């Protein structure tokens, strides 16, 4: 079931940064993702003031939407440009600081403090740095990480989750032999083995 054409593919960070620099961000959804709207109740489950994590967040508009609903949003993204565009496009003032213990990383945080976006490799983060979360919105993250890093990624995500947290995962279905990715094809069996 594992697609040979994709198994060894590695997309260097530089390639993602170039996509953002060139505006080749077809994966960005201007109006928010319909699946998040549809399954928000599953994620929130009647609770308020949740901490919600957006791995590889880009400039996802849902971050502001959830913050406006009273939740605290934390994102991780390697492209500084994406994060700056998020704040400017959403009309949100923000401050910026270094991240203690993570050389080169920056934290861009809305001035009212409810959106905190870390500009660094997601693998540089841990619960010691960003805390734990009640919910994760994984839209295009698992399917974007290099197949060889999936186990590492899943372990990190699990380590960031509170006991009763919800993990919403969006994947893509297609014939992986016809497309080299990203987004990569993650078979259902593999998702089960990664996340249990």
| CATH fold field value | Rossmann fold
**Count of all domains:** 1
Give the percentage of residues in beta strands.
15-25%
Q: Which percent bin holds the helix content?
A: 25-40%
List keywords for this structure.
Rossmann fold, 196 residues, 7-stranded mixed β-sheet, alpha/beta, 7 strands
Could you explain the architecture of this structure?
- It is a single chain.
- The chain has 196 residues and is an alpha/beta fold.
- It has one domain: Vaccinia Virus protein VP39 (Rossmann fold, 3-Layer(aba) Sandwich).
- Helices cover 32% and strands 21% of the residues.
- The chain has a seven-stranded mixed β-sheet with strand order 3-4-5-2-1-6-7, with helices on both faces.
- It is globular, with a radius of gyration of 16 Å.
- The model has no long low-confidence stretch (mean pLDDT 94).
